[in-house]
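Collaborator request, handled under Task 6.
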Amino acid sequence: MTGYGKAECTLGNDKYLVEIRSVNGKSADISLKTSLIPREHEVEVRQMIAAELGRGNIDLFITIKRGEESSAAAKSVNAELFKEYCAQLRGVASDAGMSIADDVLFPAVMRMPDVISQQEKEEMSDEDWKTLYAAICAAVEHLKEFRAKEGESLRRDVFSQVDKIESYVPEVEKYERERIDTIRERIVSHINELSLKPDADRLEQEMIFYIEKLDINEEKVRLRQHCKYFRETAENEAMPGKKLGFIAQEMGREINTMGSKSNHAEMQKWVVRMKDELEKIKEQSLNIL
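Structure tokens returned to the collaborator:
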């Protein structure tokens, strides 16, 4: 969801710069950080941005660089008030036995209240609004292009991490037979230490029952299915971000269950590697629409 776009347009003597940026967010949180959009068009702009960008914390900025003619027309000096301030200050200085030089008096008076007034902003015409709105749309398109480029790189990274998780499953399988033999030996050793003589058939049944509880075949099958579903969702859905987050959670459940059933140091090491890759996937999925 992270991205940046900008566009420019010219209205009369003034140049308008439109900038829009987006970071991760669960919904479309749009802030119009400008007063240059007419109030009657704010809803229209928000709806367009939400429809085009989906979700994210989105900020829209519009700055204006006025031409010389516009800058001159934008402000005016109140000549009568200027003269009145000058007369008052000279009078006060004279009464105090002082004099004020022109080069000191002029900048002081220019800073006095209401000497320079800002002319009221003219309402934007329909034609000017169409031009500005087109620039806003262009900035949004540039942000979408930025997202697309970043998204392709992100897709490759996430898929490589899913591939790694799948590749670790056979590494876990290498130790399953060894783990079962170790568990059998441990149980038999404890029985011998206690000098017990259990029924051989009953012991074998209980041992099979116990070992079945530690079987991870179902977890391995489901984890592989989740990895496949993750790729399909990322490839085929327009905005898969939230669903990918849910799939990652399900992948985590299977990995955690495999870890709790492992009872073998080497198997647990590979499970930890899976968890490490999964955390990277979860972090990166937050930036997927």
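The cover message to the collaborator said: "The first strand starts at residue 3 and ends at 11. The mean pLDDT is 86. Please let us know whether this matches your experimental observations."
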